[in-house]
Amino acid sequence: MAGLPSTIYNTVFKRTSTFALACVCATFFFERTFDLGSEYLFEKVNEGKLWKHIKHNYEK
Amino acid sequence: MWKPTKVQSYLKAANQVVSNNIAPLKPNAVIAPKPVTLIPQNPQCSFALSQLLPDGNVRISSGPAVSTQVRWAHTDINVPDWSHYRRDPVKAPTAKSTDSEEGRKSFTYLIAGAGTVTAAYAAKAVVGQFVSSMSASADVLALAKIEIKLGEIPEGKSVTFKWRGKPLFIRHRTAEEIATEQGVNVSSLRDPQHDNDRVKKPEWLVILGVCTHLGCVPIANAGDFGGYYCPCHGSHYDASGRIRKGPAPLNLEVPYYEFPDDTTLVVG
Fold first, then answer.
1. I want to staple B168 with a disulfide (CB 3.0 to 4.6 A). Which of B161, B183, B248, B268 is the partner?
2. Has residue B73 been placed in a domain?
3. Chain B residue numbers touching A34 (CB-CB < 8 A)
4. Does residue A20 lie within any of the structural domains?
């Protein structure tokens, strides 16, 4: 009966305070991951079009 | 309850009355019955309509044409199968819901938490965008700085520049002036500030040329203290830009500045 779900439920989700804290902390990591991921995807899609990809042709 | 027996005499003008179906408690006098008009009922609300319906058992309950068979709902009405919508741990009829309660609640809260996290991320992005729109743009910031070659300003001279629409005084102070200003007793000043707090290099005084009284532009190398003098209302500033005499309440403002090298001054 007492497994991972019940542990998580009792430590995190049961109290509103811990739930809110978990949301805030998760937002921090989510933002970092999401921003980096979307940036990486953008550069992957626009490979060869961005200034930093063609910079070496114009600058020494 | 007091019953107005004499009121009826005032109702004589009426030639017909509407029955309220309440019998008078006690007739005081014999009054000739008035013609009663029955107003046909015109049902307009659901209650009035329901009053018109026949109530009680209105069907034929016995006789040769009446079937005795009774139709029970549970025998032939198909109830839809909702099990697709139900959580797996409670699908079995024998499962105890308390056994899987925490797991099911965890899942629900996990979904809610994921939504909260996404919403917080989006809200932060929106707020950040609005706040950053309030800050100065790059072209404004580029104009907000002024670079001054210090070699062009001889010692003992105060030069005026225009910076952010305001006059900017750069004063190349002599050793004598520096010694005088540093020796001033701070407690005797109206706006107490030591000379060292107002300059980064003692030879160079950088101040805004706006009188702190009413905003006139002071005149350099004038006044009783050898610094600046405001002609509008006679405020005297010393060679450190501090108010010494006159109506102005505060010292001349020192903007942010720095010396990238020995011959250059950047204000802003």
1. B161
2. no
3. 121
4. yes
Give, for all 60 residues of chain A, the pLDDT tens digit.
457 878 889 899 999 999 999 999 999 999 999 999 999 999 999 999 999 889 888 887
> Hey, are the CB atoms on B117 and A5 less than 8 Å from each other?
no
Q: Which two tokens stand for residue A19?
A: 């739930």
pLDDT for B27 equals 62
* B216 shares its domain with B192: yes
Instruction: Say if B120 falls within a structural domain.
Output: yes
The number of domains in chain A is 1
Question: Does residue A53 lie within any of the structural domains?
Answer: yes
State the pTM of this model.
Answer: 0.44
Does the active-site annotation cover B233? yes
For B115, which residue in chain A has the nearest alpha carbon? A23
Question: Which residue in A1, A6, A27 is closest to B117 by CB distance?
Answer: A27
| Amino acid letter, residue B238 | D
Burial (CB < 10 A; 0-12, 13-18, 19+), residue A14, is: middle
Domain that holds residue B99: 83-135
* Domain CATH for B120: 1.20.5.270
- The count of C-alpha atoms lying within 13 angstroms of the C-alpha of B218, restricted to the half-sphere facing its C-beta, is 35
Query: Does the distance separating the beta carbons of B117 and A19 come in below 8 Å?
Result: no
Nearest-CA distance from B74 to chain A in Å? 36
CA distance B104 to B106: 5
Beta bridge pairs of residue A35: none
Model pLDDT for residues B152-207, shown as the tens digit of each residue: 888 888 888 888 888 888 888 888 888 888 888 888 888 888 888 888 888 888 88
> Do B121 and A27 lie within an 8 Å CB cutoff?
yes
ipTM, 2 dp = 0.86
